[in-house]
């Protein structure tokens, strides 16, 4: 019985370590954010990284089924409107069915956010993102200054403070 319990404990520990390793985002604070090889949500054009050049940016991974996204999306839209021309917000939807994203946006409009689709989940895997939403705040040179998982009401003030700091060039 002790052998069985020990075997179970070792197996459980291995699973926990394995999960912890895969749950860690590959893109980290201090990294240059990689090129985004995705199409717009309407499927009409490929995203051009030049849109971020010289601007502070937020790259946000989200999904239709994500409850915290219902709180974060209006906030991101508010920030994009408030700092228009200085801040670019890119929302990367990871739903396999793009119609789910469109449905979400009817209920939670965000007209100031640039929406892209990663329906095949290739970029989200490359980025190592496992939590929805996950946001990356980039400085004017495209370097990740904040990597943020999840979203709670309290996160608004923290993210706003970081955005304003970067807009001032700090």
Structural descriptors:
alpha/beta; six-stranded mixed β-sheet; 170 residues; disordered N terminus; Glutaredoxin; 38% helix
Describe the model.
The chain is of the alpha/beta class and 170 residues long. The chain has one domain (26-167): Glutaredoxin (3-Layer(aba) Sandwich). It is 38% helix and 18% strand. It has helices at 2-23, 69-82, 98-107, 122-127, 155-167, and strands at residues 39-40, 56-62, 87-93, 114-117, 134-138, 144-149. A 6-stranded mixed sheet has the order 1-4-3-2-5-6, covered by helices on one side. It is globular and about 40 Å long.
Characterize this entry briefly.
The chain is of the alpha/beta class and 170 residues long.
- The percent of residues in helical segments reads 25-40%
The shape, in one word, is globular
What share of the residues does DSSP label as strand, in percent? 15-25%
The largest beta-sheet arranges its strands as 1-4-3-2-5-6
Uncertain segments: 1-23
Gyration radius from CA atoms, angstroms? 18 Å
